[in-house]
């Protein structure tokens, strides 16, 4: 008598899209610089040195890079887009946070 083997299901048949890893790394770098910048600005009570602005711009650049990688990854057909879409969504949220911080800062300075 033979024992029937259980069938194993693999729900992810597609490989990840090209540009997913750089997109995820860019989002992680952007999130890290966002956290460091906001923490250092809060510790200095909003009167931080010039490099905090440079860190903020760097965070914005990293999130723009992640969005560029999202666009290039979506051009690959027949791939798994979920990780790059999640990274792109997070990059968009980080970019919106920075735009909001800049506009609020400009309104308060005027």
Q: Mind telling me the C-alpha Rg? A: 20 Å
> What is the count of helical runs?
3
How much helicity do the residues have?
55-70%
Mean pLDDT: 89
Look at the helices and sheets and give the structural class.
mainly alpha
**Regions with little confidence, pLDDT below 50 for 5+ residues:** none
Number of strands: 0
Fraction in beta strands:
under 5%
Q: How far do the termini sit from each other? A: 85 Å
Structure in words:
It is built from 3 helices and no strands. The longest helix has 28 residues. Helix 1 runs parallel beside helix 3. The N and C termini lie far apart (85 Å). The protein has 110 residues and is mainly α. 68% of the residues lie in helices and 0% in strands. The model has no long low-confidence stretch (mean pLDDT 89).
Describe, in short, the structure shown.
With 110 residues, the chain is mainly alpha-helical. 68% of the residues lie in helices and 0% in strands. The protein contains 3 helices and no strands.
Topology diagram in text:
Elements: H1 20-43, H2 51-73, H3 82-109
């Amino acid at each position: 008598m033979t024992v029937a083997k259980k069938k194993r299901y693999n729900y992810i048949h597609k490989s990840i899209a090209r540009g997913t890893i750089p997109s995820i790394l860019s989002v992680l770098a952007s999130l890290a610089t966002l956290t460091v910048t906001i923490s250092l600005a809060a510790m200095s009570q909003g009167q931080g040195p010039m490099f905090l602005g440079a860190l903020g711009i760097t965070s914005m650049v990293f999130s723009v890079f992640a969005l560029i990688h999202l666009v290039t990854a979506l051009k690959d057909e027949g791939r798994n887009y979920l990780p790059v879409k999640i990274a792109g969504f997070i990059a968009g949220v980080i970019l919106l946070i920075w735009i909001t911080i800049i506009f609020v800062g400009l309104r308060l300075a005027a």
